[in-house]
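Make up an example, fold above all:
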Amino acid sequence: MTAGFFVGYRIENALDQPGCPVCSEALRYERRYLDTLLYEYVTDPPTNLRFREGRGLCSYHAAAVLQANDPLGVAILHEGLLAYIIELLGPGAEGTERDGGLISRLMAFIRGKRGRTRPWPRQPCMVCRARQDWEDLTLQVTCEALNHPDFQSLYAQSEGLCLPHQKFKLDHLQLQNYIELQSYQHQGEPLGEAKGAWIRAVQKASGRLRSR
């Protein structure tokens, strides 16, 4: 079973529920991801690496982890993170009252104020990244499924997408229209609202653009 097929199945189920189906599916995936993380992956080396790269989780998902009722899983993940921090800081990492202790030394290290060290760059929260990747895939599959009459019928009976996801769907349709209008069969036809679709697609994929 491909990821797209599975997402399509999940979206069809979400259409029967109140609210935006993409938001509902993203929230369901996020909760499942956290549960799986704590129950199955706390000793997994690649998982622990991503956890360290994010310096733990964002405040929102850290609060969610505390409500997951798995203190052992939380303890194992954070013990590895704290051990890594102490190793980075080197001998005497626990510090003293005079220098502010471990937290003070860690913040100085992160800000790059220690001459013999470099700043510790922070990657996005691993749960945020996982949810965003799944949300993007879900929205893409939804937009593609809307080309099929059976799915259109199901979608018409649902509450539809929220405004942000509706905007993405519109941009996706305009990009498809732009590509179609570039074919020789449509030479000379006005592009209309699809004119800037290719630029909006780059901005949506890469964020705010800047020159060097």
